[in-house]
Amino acid sequence: AGCDLWSGLHTFLGDDPVLSSKARASGRKIFDLRKPPVDLPVASGAAKTVDPYVVLTVGTDCNVGKMTAQLQLARKLNDAGLRTRFVATGQTGIMIEGWGIAVDAVVADFLAGAAERLVLQGSAEADVILVEGQGSINHPGYSAVTLGLLHGSCPDGLILCHQTSRQYPAAWLRIPPLSEYIRLYETIGSVVHPTRVIGISLNTYDMTEEAARRACEAASQETGLPATDPVRFDPAPLVRAVRQGREAYLAARKGEVPAGR
Asked: Quick one: which H or E segment has residue 19?
């Protein structure tokens, strides 16, 4: 039909002999968005050295709104005059932003290195870097990609994402309380770089508005952190959390408060 192909599949269409030969014959291109760069390094901790404030979304499960929350925050922060870069780590984010690496297709030894490279690239002329999270630290199928992003991107702040109505990430595994996820993510992340959860992003799409507001209030009461559904409601609580986290980070760099980003 004379079209280029943009594919987010794990199977690379450019490796298919029939499709690739037809593309060459018609002068079309095949873009396999999940194909990783061939020169990815092992992580070296270089993401610790960037000037912007780095925020990673982490989750209680897959598909709970980690990318969507970051896109909402990026728009609001840029509108407020804070130069904010969204760093895509999955195929949909790459289609939206125009660049990135689909980290779930990277060989495990280089996954953190891919995250590190993304943060270094995203740091140019930025005040804040919002890294798209993947998976969940306790998901039996996808915790590896979560850990690679957590250690490779060296985030200063974390936003914990959760779909309120979801109870099981896998059939035999119940989702623990949000406070337990906060403990896990802060402990595991901080062994490489000091980090803390600064806010809670809820996905309440399948709840009534009244129930959704109650869920936000309950999450805030449980964790002591700002909590909202940034798509359904005003994302301002999370925007403020990012701004306050950045201010504390800048003060620490100037030696005004104890270091630790």
From this structure: helix 17-26
